[in-house]
């Protein structure tokens, strides 16, 4: 059985996809933009661990927007499967034929992970609720 993850805040949940797909998303960001996890620490440290406090959602939103813009400079076939296991094959959900890396992470409902993450962050700020990565 495949675990399907979601970004969740309050009563709202936005689809991500499988654990390997989310791992690839974070690994790609870390590999290409922030190997030491310092520049985008809210996304790569706190959110990656499963929870981001709602009070940090505004700053995390800026990180996500900047990450999205930065990843547009890379070809989609430069996605990284797993930063800790670089020889692991890419999850099938990663769209290596996309225009760039910012467009390569689209879930099975054809929703871009950046859009879903930004929506969850917005809900977190609006309802003053933490943003979580959950299995629903």
Automatic annotation (TrEMBL):
<keyword id="KW-1133">Transmembrane helix</keyword>
<protein>
    <submittedName>
        <fullName>DNA-binding protein YbaB</fullName>
    </submittedName>
</protein>
<dbReference type="GO" id="GO:0003677">
    <property type="term" value="F:DNA binding"/>
</dbReference>
<keyword id="KW-0472">Membrane</keyword>
<keyword id="KW-0238">DNA-binding</keyword>
<dbReference type="InterPro" id="IPR028185">
    <property type="entry name" value="Imm70"/>
</dbReference>
<feature type="transmembrane region" description="Helical">
    <location>
        <begin position="12"/>
        <end position="29"/>
    </location>
</feature>
<dbReference type="Pfam" id="PF15601">
    <property type="entry name" value="Imm70"/>
</dbReference>
<keyword id="KW-0812">Transmembrane</keyword>
């Amino acid at each position: 059985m495949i675990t399907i993850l979601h970004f969740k805040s309050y009563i709202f949940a936005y689809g991500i996809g499988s654990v390997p797909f989310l791992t690839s998303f974070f690994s790609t960001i870390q590999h290409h933009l922030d190997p030491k996890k310092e520049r985008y620490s809210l996304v790569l440290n706190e959110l990656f661990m499963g929870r981001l406090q709602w009070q940090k959602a505004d700053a995390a939103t800026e990180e996500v927007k900047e990450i999205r813009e930065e990843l547009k400079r890379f070809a989609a076939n430069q996605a990284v499967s797993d930063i800790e296991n670089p020889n692991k094959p890419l999850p099938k959900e990663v769209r290596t034929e996309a225009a760039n890396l910012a467009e390569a992470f689209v879930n099975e409902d054809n929703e871009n992970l950046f859009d879903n993450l930004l929506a969850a962050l917005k809900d977190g700020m609006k309802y003053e609720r933490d943003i979580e990565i959950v299995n629903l």
